Structures
1.
Amino acid sequence: MPDQDPSADSQEPSILDTGTTEPAPDSDETSAPPESSDAQASPSTEEATSPSDAEPSETDELHFEDDDLAEKLRHADEDQLDNAPFGIIKVDDEGEVEFFNQYESELSGMDPEEVVGRNFFTQVAPCTNNRLFRGRFKKGVRRGELDETFTYTYTYKMRPTLVDVHMYRDEAGHNWITVQKY
């Protein structure tokens, strides 16, 4: 078990607990760009041996299947969210789009600048304005616990497109809709 704890501590807590102060470099490097001082340590970022190395590298590598994806999304910056290999949409409790990444823009054919500030369910993707999609979202928001996964077919302004959808509510109360095309 001691062999498992260091790897767990070096991977997950660096994402979830950004205030980890175990190694001294963490507090010194939080404001410095990770690429400038850690470029030579890129092999160690894969192993995530240092929390200051692990935070950027693990959020850089967002995966649709990650168990803790909602928290990784919450801590990722806009470039990391934009470069993810799946769609990421951040919406408020009413469904107003706060963020729309590049993958989702290419999938839908809609420009993020035109989408942000509009209601996802009624103005951006009206094909989701139903009990199967929006109903699950509203129920999760009411409960304060949104964690729904399902397969769906997008049909608005596009050929029917089969996708996996995962809707999350992170610990800070942000709502995320992630989409992966088949």
2.
Amino acid sequence: MKPPFSITNNMLNSILEITQKVTRLELGAERNLHLRKENRIRSIHSSLAIENNSLSLRQVADVINGKRVLGKPQEIREVQNAYEAYEAVFKMDPYAVKDFLSAHALMMKDLIREYGSFRSGDVGIYDAAGNVVHIGARPQFVPNLVEELFHWAKTDDTPELIKSCVVHFEIEMIHPFGDGNGRMGRLWQNLILSKWQSVFEWIPIETIVYAYQQKYYDVLETSDKENDSTGFIEFMLEVILETLNSFDEKSTNNKANDILNDKVLDKLNDNEREFFGCIYDYLIENGEIGNSKAVALSGRITGTVRRYLVKLVELGVLKAGGANRNRAYALDIDTPKAAQT
């Protein structure tokens, strides 16, 4: 049975922007292991902080790196478990209940009694004042509800971006576990998205959710009362887009500063520096780039891209080969802060 939600113009606009942004990130070279681990740590810290884990980002990193940390044993264990779950989950099937339970076992091992299994009792969600804001499904109905949700998600042709938000929301509403439901909802949305585009394995969506934590709770509560996840879907698509924007801007704007020397940087404006950041990873992985690929990566028009490429050649950053449609550009520098001009 299809969960209750509607597809709105806001969603469609967000999907278009997200798809364009993801395409740019996917066309770039595969990020190095250090960057992937750094973002994984940010995801874990934010997802646990939403659940009131008090460890700082630095402490979370130290726990994951095997360093001694002064903190509550339970909070340290939460970090260790979450890291194991995130490391394993992207090889799992997002529509297999057994994998869902396996991931919960990793996430909540030794933190609750019923880890890796659906809860056997009733559960309620309370606000700061102690008022009940949501009652999870009765335990005898939980297995079938999760099975039906995953069957719908596997067989329905709803776009994965929307589908991942719906599954996230429904996990929160069913509340299938004694604890760890929020962590699992966010993790499972990442898993569904990663099967659509692998970039979502290392994009830390949880950091923006954490930044808007109160709104996250408010939208969950409102959508629950309306028995319709439309508002929650719109919110999460905005979160995904903001995450992609912040990551892309940071990675592209910093890259030129990291690689080119000051003499060259002084001759490039902000747009030209950002353009170089957009194409640099692709050049490292593929050796050369054509005009059409540079257009796709940077999102700029052909004439502007051609002008930027020519300028980078003149500055000794790139070298050109071939003619007309076969013209391609390769890096003419070898080390950071190179291209002495």
3.
Amino acid sequence: MAKRKYQRRGIQRVDLEWYGDEFMALVEEYKDDALFEAGRIVLAEAGRRAPRASGALARSGYVSTRSKSTYKRRKYWRREKKPPVAGATIGFSAPHAHLMESGRRKRGVIRPRKKRALNIEGSIRAASRYNRMSSRPFLGPAIEATQSRMVEELAAVLRRRVEERGRR
């Protein structure tokens, strides 16, 4: 941006150079990389906090931005949630991930559709019952625990990119 010079009524001369536009262009260009690295920190912490009966829940975690993703498609698992613009998604694709995080408040019965039997793990049933389930959150506490490290990682990635651009 242009330089401005002021000199009136005893005010000394001041030179001003604005580099904010260049920095904002760098942030816009590398925001996906920075968000992806911050998401990996949250995912690692959530994987450590996830309940482990078989370890499938911890292995099903993924980080996704508009340009990068660690999602792996598996049969019968949840699909990848697409992140918003200038955002990242940290998710778990295991079918029971939402139940572990938030629990279930009611009891109930799963009835078959259109008078056909349910095929649950190879056994044929007319209906299936389920009970209440208390929550065992792991993703929410991981986000709270890593807030400061996420910001530091965002800043570190952007700092590296600015320094690389400065060398060129």
